[in-house]
Amino acid sequence: MSARILSGNALRDQIYAELAPQVKALARAGVIPGLAALLAGDNPASRIYVRSKIAACEKLGLQSFEILPPATVTTEELLAMVNDLNRREDVDGVLVQMPLPPQVDAKRVLEAVDPAKDVDGFHPLNLGWLVAGRPRLVACTPAGVMEILKRNSIPVSGARAVVLGRSDIVGKPMALLLMHADATVTICHSKTRDLPQVTRQSDIVVAALGRPAMITPEFICPGATVIDVGINRITDPVLAESIFARHPARLESFRAKGSAVVGDVHPDVAEIAGAITPVPGGVGPMTIVMLMSNTVKAARMRRAPRVAAEV
Length: 311
Ligand code: NDP
Prior knowledge:
- By secondary structure, this protein is of the alpha/beta class.
- It has two domains: 25-115, 3-Layer(aba) Sandwich (Rossmann fold), CATH 3.40.50; 140-286, NAD(P)-binding Rossmann-like Domain (Rossmann fold).
- The protein contains twelve helices and eleven strands.
- The protein has helices spanning 8-28, 44-60, 75-87, 106-112, 124-131, 140-151, 171-180, 195-199, 237-243, 248-257, 283-303, 305-310, and strands at 4-5, 34-38, 63-67, 93-96, 160-164, 184-188, 204-207, 225-228, 232-234, 260-262, 275-276.
- The protein is globular, with a radius of gyration of 20 Å.
- Bound molecules: NADPH dihydro-nicotinamide-adenine-dinucleotide phosphate.
- Residues 141, 164-167, 169-171, 188-192, 195, 208-211, 229-232, 283-284, 287 line the site of NADPH dihydro-nicotinamide-adenine-dinucleotide phosphate (NDP).
- NADPH dihydro-nicotinamide-adenine-dinucleotide phosphate is lined by residues 141, 164-167, 169-171, 188-192, 195, 208-211, 229-232, 283-284, 287.
């Protein structure tokens, strides 16, 4: 048996197509949603992430602003920049690209973002609204996972779901969203005993661990839906050979490039799962489109609540 592949790319395009008329309706009301990205320092991966978010804004006709303080920036300087963005009328979304330089108090900076402009959904107030079952701006990756489940008609209500990972940005909001969708949710982490025993009882497994290919077929009940949030770049040839032992094309590509991106789920799981998201091309593309969706939503909520009702 081979799993149904839940592509994020196709869904991303669908959601872009749904957002386009909302952006047009806002434009008619004189509102062009604006996203400001604060990128401190020169972390190459962060630069790539921010560039793809800016490109997404351009594709959808949103305004974007890049604020690029040096790696030596202080917490106080960043707080002043965030406050400035909070005050600007043309900025609907403020995203602080993580990680921040080590001297910066990241929590203070994230908590300084106006909750109404917190398009990453990281602010404790937005997390609190989610806990209360009245979500406003929800963290993009877990929101994207819910879209994948919904738009592929994967039954969630009554299902046993396990979330592997309890981070504030993925694991916790993911578990809350699944619970509010009436799944019976278990949250696992590094202290969980006998993880495979827990995961094997689950209809839906969401892996957000940051551990390359850790979730092997022994963890999965045949026919389960497996959502792989992990994005891990591997460069170790021995690891690549063990992960891709039965996937010669991927091994070949690893050898040609010297690296590969793998999820937290082993590629062999596709042979027993009922449905699975690929890496790359699964959850990743959904995260960015949900950021766009949050920016449009933030603009509507703050600047044009009436336009929302007309679309
Ligand atoms: P964190 O490192 O913040 O959290 C990892 C979680 O996994 C922790 O709760 C940790 O447990 C748990 N964990 C780690 N190792 C094990 C283990 N061996 N057994 C059980 N639990 C374990 O990561 P994030 O949540 O930020 O990200 C998770 C993954 O998702 C990463 O690969 C990241 O790159 C990816 N990601 C992908 C996105 C996308 O767009 N697709 C967006 C954001 C993240 P404990 O709490 O006990 O330490």
